Amino acid sequence: MNLSAVEAISETNEGFVAFFTTHYWDVAKALYLLTRDPAEAEELAQEAMTRVYERWSRVRTMDSPGGYLYRTALNLHRKRARRLAVAGAIHLPGSREGADPARVVEDRSEVLRLLASLSVPQRQVVVLVEWLGFDSAEAAAVLGIKPASVRTRLHRAKEALRAAIGEDP
C-alpha cells in the first residue's frame, strides 16, 4: 500500500471516529427507550455503527449521516422485534444529582411505562422528535415515511400519553 492510500484510510477512520464519538451514546439511549433492555440497546447500537462503518465512504457524503445511522438502528430493532419478544429489567444509566433516588426510580419507571403503552411506530416518533430533537422532516427520513405521517403519529402519541396520565387535551 502506498502512502496516499494509508493517508486516505487514516482520514476515513478519523472521520468515522468523530462520527462514532458524536452519535454512539445517543443512538444507544434512543434504542434503550425502544427496547427497554440496556444490553439489547447497546448490541443494536454496535451493529448499526458496524453497518455505517462498512459503508462509511458512501455514508459520510450523505446530507445526514446521523439520520442514516438512526434509520439503520431502527430497522435493526424492527427486524429483531419481529423475531424476539422484547423483555428485560428496566435499568436506566445515570441519575440526577441531588435528587431523591427513590423519586428518580419512580419517575423513570413511569416514563418507561408510558412509553411502553405506545405502539412501536408512535414510540419511535416520540424518541426521535421529542427526545432527540429531530424535526418532522428528519424523523421522516430516518423512518422512511412522510413528514405528515410523523406529525400524525406524534399527535396521536401525545394524545395517548395525555389520556394515560389523565390530562385534558
Instruction: Return the CATH architecture of the largest domain.
Output: Orthogonal Bundle
- Main sheet properties: none
Q: Class by helix and strand content? A: mainly alpha
* Computed Rg: 18 Å
Provide the low-confidence segments as ranges: 84-96
Features:
single chain, 169 residues, Rna Polymerase Sigma Factor, Chain: A, Arc Repressor Mutant, subunit A, 2 domains, 0% strand, globular
Describe this structure in words.
This protein has 8 helices and no strands. The chain is an all-alpha fold and 169 residues long. The chain folds into 2 domains: 86 residues, Rna Polymerase Sigma Factor, Chain: A; 76 residues, Arc Repressor Mutant, subunit A (Orthogonal Bundle), CATH 1.10.10.10. Helix 4 packs across helix 7, helix 6 packs across helix 8 and helix 7 packs across helix 8. About 8% of the residues have low confidence.
